[in-house]
Specification:
alpha/beta, two-stranded antiparallel ribbon, 8 strands, Rossmann fold, 2 domains, elongated
Length: 288
């Protein structure tokens, strides 16, 4: 909990911290607050990375089993429509996958949701899924945030290497919101390179957003703090790591606040810090 002495000019909020956010906190004058606990009762989400053309079979079996016991499922694709472009032709699309699943599993009710639908169509698709009329929702990453269906317990993410780890972590968060044990399947083709698979293995091993962001930062780099590039090594630090020293950052901030507070008691009138933790009552009482 933080007591603000000055109204901030900028409030940056992120449901899932990304490397760029962490690097800005590291090097900028930003007071950092975090919520590192899950809501009570949440079960860990079983996550599995599967590579190759046969990876879908296990995921489909889990989908059928979950639906047969009253659960619901998301199937996520990176594209809306099939693409003929050489760089995208191997990737799944929502419309083609929806049609294929309807034909393959005639006993299951499927819905579809993507960004090219109008507002009324999107609302109808979400309502049908939330009300349980649709058992499986085939969608793009448009469901990444703001969708809360506690009965949904399985998510299958096709071509997972086409998404960043923050997006994947958010998508995984669409399940595990109820009492059912939830599962997340990250599917990639043989074409997915080692760097992509390495990043996805982090999600397989951890469901901690902060750990995932730090690992992604370590693997991809912070990018340009004042530019548009969001990956790559933009800073060379020989005395510290931008990936692992966030706690050191907070310790330094507290030390700076204490130094300023003591200096002001002596009448030196140094600039006040942006915020002081309420637990440090000795500093708060000094009216910094």
């Amino acid at each position: 909990m933080v007591e603000w002495r000055h109204a901030p000019h900028v409030l940056a909020m992120s449901a899932t911290p990304i490397p760029r956010t962490l690097a800005m906190c590291k090097h900028g004058e930003m007071a950092l607050s975090s919520i590192d606990e899950k809501p009570a009762g949440r079960l860990p989400i079983y996550t599995k990375l599967s590579v190759g053309p046969d990876a879908i079979d296990e995921a489909h079996r889990a989908m059928v089993e979950e639906v047969s016991t009253g659960g619901q499922c998301y199937v996520i694709t990176p594209l809306v429509n099939a693409s003929t472009a050489d760089s995208f032709e191997r990737f799944k699309s929502a419309e083609v996958e929806h049609k294929a699943l309807v034909e393959k599993f005639p006993g299951i009710t499927f819905g579809i949701l993507h960004g090219q639908m109008n507002s009324e169509e999107k609302a109808a698709a979400l309502k049908a899924f939330a009300d349980g009329h649709t058992q499986v929702l085939v969608a793009t990453s448009v469901v990444e945030v703001g969708v809360d269906v506690p009965n949904a317990s399985v998510i299958i993410i096709e071509d997972a290497d086409r998404h960043g780890v923050s997006t994947l972590h958010q998508l995984r968060g669409r399940v595990g919101r109820g009492s059912r044990q939830s599962k997340c399947f990250l599917l990639v083709g043989d074409e997915a390179g080692y760097p992509s698979q390495q990043r996805l293995r982090v999600l397989e091993r951890s469901d901690n957003g902060f750990h995932i962001a730090e690992s992604d930062l370590r693997l991809r780099g912070a990018g340009d703090l004042l530019g548009t590039r969001q990956s790559g090594s933009a800073v060379s630090l020989f005395h510290a790591s931008v990936a692992t020293d966030l706690y050191l950052l907070e310790a330094a901030r507290r030390a700076a606040a204490e130094t300023i507070a003591r200096a002001n008691v002596r009448g030196e009138n140094l600039p006040a810090p942006l915020a002081i933790p309420l637990k440090d009552r000795s500093l708060v009482d000094l009216n910094v």
